Protein backbone atom coordinates (compact mmCIF):
# COMPACT_ATOMS: atom_id res chain seq x y z
CA UNK A 1 0.00 0.00 0.00
CA UNK A 2 1.39 3.42 -0.94
CA UNK A 3 2.02 5.93 1.84
CA UNK A 4 -1.28 7.31 3.05
CA UNK A 5 -3.40 5.11 0.77
CA UNK A 6 -6.66 4.12 2.42
CA UNK A 7 -5.82 5.97 5.61
CA UNK A 8 -8.41 8.08 7.44
CA UNK A 9 -7.45 11.66 8.22
CA UNK A 10 -9.53 13.48 10.82
CA UNK A 11 -9.64 17.28 10.56
CA UNK A 12 -11.32 19.76 12.89
CA UNK A 13 -13.44 21.81 10.48
CA UNK A 14 -15.22 23.90 13.12
CA UNK A 15 -13.57 27.18 12.05
CA UNK A 16 -14.59 26.55 8.43
CA UNK A 17 -18.24 26.62 9.49
CA UNK A 18 -18.18 29.32 12.15
CA UNK A 19 -15.62 31.93 11.05
CA UNK A 20 -16.09 34.02 7.92
CA UNK A 21 -12.53 35.26 7.46
CA UNK A 22 -9.07 34.56 8.80
CA UNK A 23 -8.72 31.04 10.18
CA UNK A 24 -12.14 30.12 8.83
CA UNK A 25 -11.05 30.86 5.28
CA UNK A 26 -7.70 29.11 5.81
CA UNK A 27 -9.49 25.97 6.98
CA UNK A 28 -12.04 26.03 4.16
CA UNK A 29 -9.48 26.55 1.43
CA UNK A 30 -7.11 23.90 2.77
CA UNK A 31 -9.83 21.27 3.14
CA UNK A 32 -11.13 21.95 -0.38
CA UNK A 33 -7.60 21.73 -1.78
CA UNK A 34 -6.98 18.42 0.02
CA UNK A 35 -10.26 17.00 -1.26
CA UNK A 36 -9.29 17.97 -4.83
CA UNK A 37 -6.16 15.80 -4.72
CA UNK A 38 -6.37 12.12 -5.82
CA UNK A 39 -8.80 10.29 -3.47
CA UNK A 40 -6.39 7.78 -1.97
CA UNK A 41 -7.18 8.97 1.55
CA UNK A 42 -10.48 9.40 3.36
CA UNK A 43 -11.24 12.54 5.33
CA UNK A 44 -13.50 12.78 8.35
CA UNK A 45 -14.35 16.41 9.01
CA UNK A 46 -15.22 16.85 12.65
CA UNK A 47 -16.94 20.02 13.85
CA UNK A 48 -18.70 21.32 16.89
CA UNK A 49 -22.43 21.64 16.31
CA UNK A 50 -22.87 24.50 13.83
CA UNK A 51 -24.44 27.69 15.21
CA UNK A 52 -28.10 28.50 14.70
CA UNK A 53 -27.19 30.94 11.93
CA UNK A 54 -26.54 29.29 8.54
CA UNK A 55 -22.90 28.21 8.16
CA UNK A 56 -20.65 29.76 5.56
CA UNK A 57 -21.99 28.62 2.14
CA UNK A 58 -19.90 25.89 0.52
CA UNK A 59 -17.70 25.64 3.59
CA UNK A 60 -17.06 21.91 3.23
CA UNK A 61 -16.44 19.89 0.08
CA UNK A 62 -18.87 17.24 -1.11
CA UNK A 63 -17.09 14.09 -2.26
CA UNK A 64 -17.27 10.36 -1.75
CA UNK A 65 -14.03 10.32 0.24
CA UNK A 66 -15.09 13.20 2.55
CA UNK A 67 -17.44 12.72 5.53
CA UNK A 68 -18.72 15.42 7.88
CA UNK A 69 -19.44 14.36 11.46
CA UNK A 70 -20.70 17.23 13.64
CA UNK A 71 -20.69 16.78 17.39
CA UNK A 72 -23.97 17.14 19.29
CA UNK A 73 -22.41 19.96 21.38
CA UNK A 74 -21.61 23.50 20.32
CA UNK A 75 -18.10 24.91 20.36
CA UNK A 76 -18.51 26.63 23.73
CA UNK A 77 -19.49 23.42 25.52
CA UNK A 78 -16.84 21.30 23.86
CA UNK A 79 -14.16 23.82 24.84
CA UNK A 80 -15.43 23.83 28.43
CA UNK A 81 -15.22 20.06 28.61
CA UNK A 82 -11.87 19.68 26.83
CA UNK A 83 -9.88 22.76 27.83
CA UNK A 84 -11.37 24.02 31.07
CA UNK A 85 -12.50 20.82 32.81
CA UNK A 86 -9.82 18.89 30.86
CA UNK A 87 -12.03 15.82 30.50
CA UNK A 88 -10.17 13.23 28.40
CA UNK A 89 -13.08 12.54 26.05
CA UNK A 90 -11.32 11.52 22.82
CA UNK A 91 -12.31 13.19 19.59
CA UNK A 92 -12.81 9.70 18.14
CA UNK A 93 -16.13 9.58 20.02
CA UNK A 94 -17.34 11.91 17.26
CA UNK A 95 -15.13 11.02 14.30
CA UNK A 96 -14.92 7.27 14.64
CA UNK A 97 -11.57 5.66 13.84
CA UNK A 98 -8.88 7.93 12.42
CA UNK A 99 -5.24 7.24 11.59
CA UNK A 100 -4.18 10.88 12.05
CA UNK A 101 -5.89 13.95 13.47
CA UNK A 102 -5.21 17.52 12.33
CA UNK A 103 -6.43 20.55 14.29
CA UNK A 104 -5.98 23.73 12.19
CA UNK A 105 -7.01 26.26 14.86
CA UNK A 106 -4.48 26.55 17.74
CA UNK A 107 -5.91 23.93 20.13
CA UNK A 108 -5.80 20.14 20.12
CA UNK A 109 -8.62 18.02 21.55
CA UNK A 110 -7.89 14.74 23.34
CA UNK A 111 -6.94 12.05 20.83
CA UNK A 112 -6.83 8.42 21.96
CA UNK A 113 -4.83 5.38 20.99
CA UNK A 114 -1.47 6.92 20.18
CA UNK A 115 -2.82 8.39 16.94
CA UNK A 116 -0.37 10.98 15.51
CA UNK A 117 -1.59 14.55 15.73
CA UNK A 118 -0.86 17.72 13.80
CA UNK A 119 -1.61 21.20 15.17
CA UNK A 120 -1.60 24.46 13.21
CA UNK A 121 -0.51 27.55 15.13
CA UNK A 122 -1.13 30.63 13.03
CA UNK A 123 0.60 33.24 15.16
CA UNK A 124 1.54 34.25 18.68
CA UNK A 125 -0.03 37.70 18.58
CA UNK A 126 -1.69 37.08 21.95
CA UNK A 127 1.81 36.75 23.43
CA UNK A 128 3.36 39.78 21.73
CA UNK A 129 0.34 42.11 21.73
CA UNK A 130 -1.91 40.99 24.62
CA UNK A 131 -3.34 44.50 24.89
CA UNK A 132 -5.10 43.99 21.56
CA UNK A 133 -7.17 41.08 22.90
CA UNK A 134 -9.77 40.72 25.66
CA UNK A 135 -7.96 39.77 28.87
CA UNK A 136 -9.99 36.57 29.33
CA UNK A 137 -9.06 35.39 25.83
CA UNK A 138 -5.35 36.07 26.45
CA UNK A 139 -5.48 34.05 29.68
CA UNK A 140 -7.25 31.19 27.89
CA UNK A 141 -4.84 31.10 24.95
CA UNK A 142 -1.76 31.32 27.16
CA UNK A 143 -3.05 28.35 29.13
CA UNK A 144 -4.31 26.12 26.32
CA UNK A 145 -2.12 26.73 23.28
CA UNK A 146 1.24 25.85 24.90
CA UNK A 147 -0.30 22.62 26.23
CA UNK A 148 -1.60 21.78 22.76
CA UNK A 149 1.80 22.49 21.18
CA UNK A 150 3.49 20.23 23.73
CA UNK A 151 0.99 17.40 23.17
CA UNK A 152 0.98 17.51 19.36
CA UNK A 153 3.14 15.09 17.44
CA UNK A 154 4.01 17.87 15.00
CA UNK A 155 3.16 21.55 14.54
CA UNK A 156 2.45 23.61 11.44
CA UNK A 157 3.35 27.31 11.40
CA UNK A 158 1.95 29.73 8.82
CA UNK A 159 5.33 31.43 8.33
CA UNK A 160 8.97 31.42 9.32
CA UNK A 161 8.13 34.30 11.67
CA UNK A 162 5.63 32.12 13.55
CA UNK A 163 8.07 29.20 13.55
CA UNK A 164 10.73 31.42 15.14
CA UNK A 165 8.20 32.53 17.75
CA UNK A 166 7.33 28.94 18.66
CA UNK A 167 10.99 28.09 19.15
CA UNK A 168 11.81 31.27 21.09
CA UNK A 169 8.71 31.66 23.27
CA UNK A 170 7.96 28.06 24.25
CA UNK A 171 11.19 26.26 23.41
CA UNK A 172 9.52 24.04 20.84
CA UNK A 173 12.11 21.69 19.29
CA UNK A 174 13.07 22.93 15.79
CA UNK A 175 12.40 19.53 14.23
CA UNK A 176 8.83 19.58 15.52
CA UNK A 177 7.72 22.63 13.50
CA UNK A 178 7.15 22.84 9.74
CA UNK A 179 6.20 26.00 7.82
CA UNK A 180 3.24 25.64 5.46
CA UNK A 181 2.43 28.79 3.53
CA UNK A 182 -1.18 29.54 2.68
CA UNK A 183 -2.34 29.90 -0.91
CA UNK A 184 -4.46 32.23 -2.97
CA UNK A 185 -7.63 30.89 -4.54
CA UNK A 186 -7.85 31.27 -8.31
CA UNK A 187 -11.03 33.33 -7.97
CA UNK A 188 -8.82 36.21 -6.85
CA UNK A 189 -8.14 37.98 -10.13
CA UNK A 190 -9.23 41.23 -11.73
CA UNK A 191 -12.84 40.80 -12.96
CA UNK A 192 -13.28 41.33 -16.70
CA UNK A 193 -16.87 42.50 -16.37
CA UNK A 194 -17.31 46.20 -15.48
CA UNK A 195 -20.84 45.38 -14.37
CA UNK A 196 -19.44 43.09 -11.66
CA UNK A 197 -17.31 45.92 -10.30
CA UNK A 198 -20.27 48.29 -10.36
CA UNK A 199 -22.51 45.77 -8.60
CA UNK A 200 -20.09 45.32 -5.72
CA UNK A 201 -19.63 49.08 -5.41
CA UNK A 202 -23.40 49.44 -5.15
CA UNK A 203 -23.80 46.54 -2.71
CA UNK A 204 -21.42 48.13 -0.20
CA UNK A 205 -22.48 51.74 -0.72
CA UNK A 206 -19.22 52.88 -2.32
CA UNK A 207 -20.73 54.88 -5.18
CA UNK A 208 -18.26 55.88 -7.88
CA UNK A 209 -15.67 57.51 -5.62
CA UNK A 210 -12.02 56.35 -5.77
CA UNK A 211 -10.86 54.52 -2.68
CA UNK A 212 -8.00 53.07 -0.69
CA UNK A 213 -8.82 49.62 0.69
CA UNK A 214 -7.88 47.51 3.68
CA UNK A 215 -9.34 44.09 4.53
CA UNK A 216 -9.50 42.34 7.88
CA UNK A 217 -11.58 41.99 11.02
CA UNK A 218 -11.91 45.25 12.91
CA UNK A 219 -9.77 44.75 16.01
CA UNK A 220 -6.83 46.65 17.55
CA UNK A 221 -4.11 44.39 16.13
CA UNK A 222 -5.03 45.53 12.62
CA UNK A 223 -3.85 49.05 13.56
CA UNK A 224 -6.75 50.79 11.84
CA UNK A 225 -6.71 53.74 14.22
CA UNK A 226 -3.22 54.73 13.06
CA UNK A 227 -4.37 54.23 9.47
CA UNK A 228 -7.31 56.58 9.98
CA UNK A 229 -5.03 59.26 11.43
CA UNK A 230 -2.62 58.88 8.53
CA UNK A 231 -5.48 58.94 6.04
CA UNK A 232 -6.52 62.40 7.15
CA UNK A 233 -3.74 63.86 4.94
CA UNK A 234 -5.00 61.81 1.98
CA UNK A 235 -8.55 63.00 2.52
CA UNK A 236 -7.37 66.62 2.63
CA UNK A 237 -5.45 66.22 -0.63
CA UNK A 238 -7.99 64.51 -2.85
CA UNK A 239 -11.27 62.64 -3.34
CA UNK A 240 -10.31 59.17 -2.08
CA UNK A 241 -12.29 57.35 0.58
CA UNK A 242 -10.80 54.78 2.94
CA UNK A 243 -12.75 51.51 2.81
CA UNK A 244 -12.28 49.13 5.76
CA UNK A 245 -13.75 45.74 4.83
CA UNK A 246 -14.22 43.36 7.73
CA UNK A 247 -16.61 42.32 10.43
CA UNK A 248 -16.53 43.87 13.87
CA UNK A 249 -14.19 42.06 16.23
CA UNK A 250 -13.31 42.60 19.84
CA UNK A 251 -12.30 46.02 21.20
CA UNK A 252 -13.42 47.72 17.99
CA UNK A 253 -15.02 50.74 19.64
CA UNK A 254 -11.79 52.73 19.49
CA UNK A 255 -11.89 52.83 15.69
CA UNK A 256 -15.33 54.42 15.64
CA UNK A 257 -14.13 57.05 18.11
CA UNK A 258 -10.96 57.74 16.08
CA UNK A 259 -12.94 58.26 12.88
CA UNK A 260 -15.09 60.83 14.70
CA UNK A 261 -12.05 62.57 16.26
CA UNK A 262 -10.47 62.98 12.83
CA UNK A 263 -13.68 64.32 11.31
CA UNK A 264 -13.68 61.56 8.70
CA UNK A 265 -17.14 60.05 9.11
CA UNK A 266 -17.92 60.82 5.46
CA UNK A 267 -14.58 59.57 4.13
CA UNK A 268 -14.01 56.31 6.04
CA UNK A 269 -16.45 53.58 5.09
CA UNK A 270 -16.91 50.42 7.18
CA UNK A 271 -18.48 47.72 5.00
CA UNK A 272 -18.82 45.02 7.64
CA UNK A 273 -18.06 41.43 6.63
CA UNK A 274 -17.64 41.02 2.87
CA UNK A 275 -18.62 37.76 1.22
CA UNK A 276 -15.73 35.88 -0.38
CA UNK A 277 -17.44 36.11 -3.77
CA UNK A 278 -17.40 39.92 -3.61
CA UNK A 279 -13.81 40.36 -2.49
CA UNK A 280 -12.09 40.15 -5.92
CA UNK A 281 -14.15 43.03 -7.29
CA UNK A 282 -13.68 45.03 -4.09
CA UNK A 283 -9.91 44.61 -4.34
CA UNK A 284 -9.78 45.28 -8.06
CA UNK A 285 -11.69 48.58 -7.87
CA UNK A 286 -9.28 50.03 -5.29
CA UNK A 287 -6.50 52.42 -6.30
CA UNK A 288 -4.30 51.17 -3.44
CA UNK A 289 -4.40 48.38 -0.86
CA UNK A 290 -3.01 49.15 2.59
CA UNK A 291 -2.27 46.75 5.45
CA UNK A 292 -0.82 48.42 8.57
CA UNK A 293 -1.15 45.42 10.91
CA UNK A 294 0.98 45.23 14.06
CA UNK A 295 1.43 41.47 13.74
CA UNK A 296 0.31 38.71 11.34
CA UNK A 297 0.94 35.00 11.20
CA UNK A 298 0.74 35.19 7.42
CA UNK A 299 -1.19 38.11 5.87
CA UNK A 300 -3.28 36.53 3.12
CA UNK A 301 -5.03 39.81 2.12
CA UNK A 302 -1.71 41.07 0.71
CA UNK A 303 -1.61 38.23 -1.79
CA UNK A 304 -5.32 38.50 -2.61
CA UNK A 305 -4.87 42.18 -3.42
CA UNK A 306 -1.80 41.44 -5.56
CA UNK A 307 -3.71 38.74 -7.45
CA UNK A 308 -6.43 41.27 -8.25
CA UNK A 309 -3.94 43.73 -9.71
CA UNK A 310 -3.70 46.29 -6.91
CA UNK A 311 -0.55 48.00 -5.62
CA UNK A 312 0.13 47.11 -1.98
CA UNK A 313 1.45 49.20 0.90
CA UNK A 314 2.10 47.01 3.94
CA UNK A 315 3.48 46.93 7.44
CA UNK A 316 6.91 45.37 7.73
CA UNK A 317 6.00 43.51 10.93
CA UNK A 318 6.29 39.77 11.69
CA UNK A 319 5.56 37.58 8.64
CA UNK A 320 4.59 40.29 6.18
CA UNK A 321 8.02 40.72 4.55
CA UNK A 322 7.96 36.96 3.83
CA UNK A 323 4.64 37.28 2.05
CA UNK A 324 5.66 40.40 0.16
CA UNK A 325 9.20 39.47 -0.83
CA UNK A 326 9.73 35.73 -0.97
CA UNK A 327 11.32 36.04 -4.39
CA UNK A 328 13.77 38.81 -3.43
CA UNK A 329 12.63 42.25 -4.55
CA UNK A 330 9.59 43.32 -2.49
CA UNK A 331 6.26 43.14 -4.30
CA UNK A 332 4.83 45.67 -1.82
CA UNK A 333 6.01 48.93 -0.31
CA UNK A 334 6.91 48.13 3.31
CA UNK A 335 7.13 50.43 6.32
CA UNK A 336 6.84 50.39 10.10
CA UNK A 337 3.32 49.97 11.52
CA UNK A 338 4.21 52.68 14.07
CA UNK A 339 5.20 55.40 11.55
CA UNK A 340 2.03 57.44 11.19
CA UNK A 341 3.67 60.21 9.17
CA UNK A 342 5.35 57.61 6.95
CA UNK A 343 1.99 56.00 6.16
CA UNK A 344 0.47 59.35 5.22
CA UNK A 345 3.42 60.21 2.98
CA UNK A 346 3.52 56.77 1.35
CA UNK A 347 -0.20 56.77 0.55
CA UNK A 348 0.02 60.24 -0.95
CA UNK A 349 3.12 59.36 -2.98
CA UNK A 350 1.72 56.12 -4.41
CA UNK A 351 -1.67 57.61 -5.27
CA UNK A 352 0.14 60.36 -7.21
CA UNK A 353 2.53 58.00 -9.05
CA UNK A 354 0.84 55.75 -11.61
CA UNK A 355 4.18 54.27 -12.73
CA UNK A 356 5.18 53.27 -9.19
CA UNK A 357 1.82 51.58 -8.66
CA UNK A 358 2.15 49.77 -12.00
CA UNK A 359 5.56 48.41 -10.98
CA UNK A 360 4.12 47.11 -7.72
CA UNK A 361 1.19 45.53 -9.56
CA UNK A 362 3.52 43.65 -11.92
CA UNK A 363 5.72 42.46 -9.04
CA UNK A 364 2.65 41.42 -7.06
CA UNK A 365 1.21 39.31 -9.87
CA UNK A 366 4.52 37.42 -10.08
CA UNK A 367 4.69 37.00 -6.31
CA UNK A 368 1.23 35.43 -6.09
CA UNK A 369 2.30 32.49 -8.26
CA UNK A 370 4.51 31.29 -5.40
CA UNK A 371 1.44 30.78 -3.17
CA UNK A 372 -1.23 28.36 -4.38
CA UNK A 373 -3.54 26.13 -2.34
CA UNK A 374 -2.81 23.11 -4.52
CA UNK A 375 0.88 23.43 -3.67
CA UNK A 376 0.05 23.79 0.02
CA UNK A 377 -2.21 20.71 -0.08
CA UNK A 378 0.46 18.54 -1.71
CA UNK A 379 3.06 19.61 0.85
CA UNK A 380 0.62 18.88 3.64
CA UNK A 381 -0.13 15.43 2.24
CA UNK A 382 3.58 14.66 2.24
CA UNK A 383 3.72 15.68 5.91
CA UNK A 384 0.65 13.54 6.70
CA UNK A 385 2.40 10.58 5.08
CA UNK A 386 5.55 11.17 7.11
CA UNK A 387 3.57 11.24 10.35
CA UNK A 388 1.64 8.10 9.38
CA UNK A 389 4.85 6.25 8.59
CA UNK A 390 6.60 7.48 11.74
Give a verbal description of the structure.
This protein has 390 residues and is α/β, with parallel strands linked by helices. Helix content is 42%, strand content 15%. The chain has 16 helices and 13 strands. The strands form two sheets. A seven-stranded parallel sheet has the order 3-2-1-4-5-6-7. It has a six-stranded parallel sheet with strand order 10-9-8-11-12-13, sandwiched between helices. Helix 2 (23-36) packs across helix 16 (373-389). The model has no long low-confidence stretch (mean pLDDT 93).
Could you write a compact summary of the structure shown?
With 390 residues, the chain is α/β, with parallel strands linked by helices. The protein has 16 helices and 13 strands. Helix 2 crosses helix 16, helix 9 packs parallel to helix 10 and helix 9 packs across helix 14.
- Largest sheet, spatial ordering of strands: 3-2-1-4-5-6-7
Structural class: alpha/beta
- How large is the share of residues in beta strands? 5-15%
Q: What is the residue-mean pLDDT, rounded to a whole number?
A: 93
Radius of gyration: 21 Å
SSE topology sketch:
Blueprint: E1 8-12, H1 14-18, H2 23-36, E2 42-47, E3 66-70, H3 75-84, H4 92-95, E4 100-103, E5 117-121, H5 125-128, H6 135-151, E6 154-157, H7 160-170, E7 177-179, H8 194-203, E8 211-215, H9 224-237, E9 241-245, H10 253-261, E10 268-272, H11 279-284, E11 288-291, H12 300-307, E12 312-315, H13 320-325, E13 333-335, H14 340-351, H15 354-368, H16 373-389
Parallel strand pairs: 1-2, 1-4, 2-3, 4-5, 5-6, 6-7, 8-9, 8-11, 9-10, 11-12, 12-13
Helix pairs in contact: 2-16, 9-10, 9-14, 12-15
Amino acid sequence: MAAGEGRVIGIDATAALTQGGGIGRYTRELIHALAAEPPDRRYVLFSARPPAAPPVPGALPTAAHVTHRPAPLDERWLYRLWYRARLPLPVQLFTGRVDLFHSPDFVLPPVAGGVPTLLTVHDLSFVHYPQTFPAALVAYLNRVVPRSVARATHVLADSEATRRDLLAVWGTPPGKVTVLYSGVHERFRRPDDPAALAAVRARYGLGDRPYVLTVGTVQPRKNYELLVRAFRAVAAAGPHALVIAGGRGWLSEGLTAEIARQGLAERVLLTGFVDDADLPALYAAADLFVFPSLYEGFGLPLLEAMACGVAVLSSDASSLPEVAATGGEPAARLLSPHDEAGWAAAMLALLADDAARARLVAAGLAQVERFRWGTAARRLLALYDGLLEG
